[in-house]
UniProtKB/TrEMBL annotation:
Taxonomic lineage: Eukaryota, Viridiplantae, Streptophyta, Embryophyta, Tracheophyta
Keyword Coiled coil listed: yes
Biased composition (Low complexity): 18-28
Keywords: Coiled coil
UniProt xrefs under InterPro entries: Remorin_C, Remorin_N
Residue ranges the record marks as coiled coil: 114-152
Family to which this protein belongs: Belongs to the remorin family.
Region (Disordered): 1-36
Organism: Saponaria officinalis
Domain (Remorin C-terminal) ranges: 79-184
Name of the protein: Remorin
Length: 189
């Protein structure tokens, strides 16, 4: 019985090899059937070269438990790599979000500080405008007071001038009445 089983196993291997060879021959025929050669016209002297399509190598699926184990190891590796890539993307996204949040906080802080300084500047400008208006009012009052004093002094001088003119007219009338010239006609002589 042991010999019959070994013959069956050897026979199965031959059947598998034959099936694989037939499948390879079929795929080769299919490739040549799919790519027709374009006929060359007599007008052009260009030679058409047909290149066979490169197909990715298919792995044997009938390799047994060794191939299955290798495939499982490869799948585990791909799974680990996918998890690492997902973790990396997640960490990058976290870092970007954290940086964006901090930048936003800094921008908000900067804007509030600028607003405070502008408000303070505006307040100082208003105070300066108020002081300027007060000083302008004081200066106008001083100018008005000076003008008033000047008018008063002018009025006093005009009054003194009027008194002196009146006095001179009275003296002249007196001298005319007496008929004598004034004693101090020219004071420099």
């Amino acid at each position: 019985m042991g010999e019959e089983e070994s013959k069956k196993v050897v026979g199965d291997e031959k059947v598998e090899e034959t099936a694989t060879a037939t499948a390879t021959a079929t795929t080769t025929k299919d490739v040549s059937d799919e790519k027709p050669v374009i006929p060359v016209s007599d007008e052009k002297a260009i030679v058409a070269v047909a290149t066979p399509a490169v197909e990715p190598e298919k792995k044997k699926l009938s390799g047994g438990s060794i191939d299955r184990d290798a495939e499982l190891v490869r799948l585990e590796q791909e799974k680990k790599l996918a998890l690492v890539k997902a973790w990396e993307e997640n960490e990058k996204t976290k870092a970007e979000n954290k940086a964006c949040k901090k930048l936003s906080t800094i921008q908000t802080w900067e804007n509030s500080k600028k607003a405070n300084i502008e408000a303070e500047l505006k307040k100082i400008e208003e105070q300066l405008e108020k002081k300027k208006a007060e000083y302008a009012e004081k200066m106008k009052n001083k100018v008005a007071e000076i003008h008033k004093l000047a008018e008063e002094k002018k009025a006093i001088i005009e009054a003194q001038k009027g008194e002196q003119l009146l006095k001179a007219e009275e003296c002249a009338a007196k001298y005319r009445a007496i008929g004598q010239p004034p004693k101090k006609f020219l004071g420099c002589f």
